[in-house]
TrEMBL record:
Homology family: Belongs to the SIMIBI class G3E GTPase family. ArgK/MeaB subfamily.
GO cellular component, one term: cytoplasm
Pfam families for this protein: MeaB
Listed Gene3D superfamilies: 1.10.287.130, 1.20.5.170, P-loop containing nucleotide triphosphate hydrolases
NCBIfam families per UniProt: lao (TIGR00750), PRK09435.1 (NF006958)
One example GO MF annotation: GTPase activity
InterPro entries: GTPase_ArgK, P-loop_NTPase
Record protein name field: Protein kinase
PANTHER family recorded: METHYLMALONIC ACIDURIA TYPE A PROTEIN, MITOCHONDRIAL, METHYLMALONYL-COA MUTASE
Amino acid sequence: MKTPDKKSALSEIDGINQPDTLSIHAVQQIQKLRKKQPSAKELIDGILKHDKVALSRAITLVESTNPEHLSKANEVINGVLPNANKSVRIGITGVPGVGKSTFIEAFGKHLTSLGKKVAVLAVDPSSTISHGSILGDKTRMEELVKDENAFIRPSASGETLGGVARKTRESIILCEACGFDTIIIETVGVGQSETAVHSMVDFFLLLKISGAGDELQGIKRGIMEMADAIVINKADGDNINKAKLAKTEFNRALHLFPAKKSGWIPTASTCSSYTKEGINEVWNTISDYLELAKSNHYFQEKRKDQNQFWMMETINEQLKSNFYNHPEIIELIEQNKKAVQNDEMSPFAAAVSLLEKYFK
Ligand SMILES: Nc1nc2c(ncn2[C@@H]2O[C@H](COP(=O)(O)OP(=O)(O)OP(=O)(O)O)[C@@H](O)[C@H]2O)c(=O)[nH]1
Ligand SMILES: [Mg+2]
């Protein structure tokens, strides 16, 4: 039995003998597989053949910060683009603990039972702090994880909202090309992430739980305006009556908002992800919306507007990151900051000199 290469992770520290059962052939197989990175073409072919492993790998490239990976990711995205877009994209938001992941599990299972193929992505720029809901979500979506017609990808982390949003958008395209017809995007209802998600979905759903009769308190007006439906979750056990009251109150409040450009009138409903009551009604509501928005062409127009918006966002993001990562600029920013602090330079002059330097 030959001992594998000392540098390999499969090789033990000095003084410890390799077990006899270690097969050098198996080690070499693993090493070979590990090193072999699929080409852009292989990934494109895999995705178009609806291979989830290829999809996962392509998303990993999209999430990478390595410039080489990024250019490969772009190649893959461009290659599959003609096959994307044929889906419905649903955004789901709500405060932490409202039951988004549990709802997505129940809702997703309902969708796959209708023969749909469901991909779940998450926008959660805060997950760097909370160390991500990767484990949490995968255990909360136990059934969906096992469903062969579902694909769950936890949020990319360690990033700004802009960065996470770009990755999610590109992942949507990859999922669609891989045959997923229903894309669900979960976002936690804090910060600006709802706005980012709203601008990448067709239908935006706000999840709520009933409170102590003060349902509208503490809810951001902007989120109410963005919502195409409000669903009061956890309408089970002792909560049923409170949930029904909350539904009435939200329906009344929704009527006070100006009419939507889509012609759609948002409504509130109740559901329980535990008893599954109300889950199929949520899909019926979304189907009604799609019928309306497609027949009056709002659906198509909105997607075009979103594409333009994301084009501009991508330019903004790239310019910013290119500027701030430029070695000379990194140095000069520090110098100019000091100069501004010591009143040797005006903030305006300090900024202009940096920009001029960069664009020269
Ligand atoms: N009674 C009841 N409890 C629920 C229901 N849905 C979720 N829960 C519970 O609510 C808690 C939070 O659920 P999650 O699905 O993790 O909520 P979340 O909104 O995804 O939370 P974050 O990912 O942390 O933002 C869990 O303890 C769930 O078991 C429901 O329909 N009824
Ligand atoms: Mg969650």
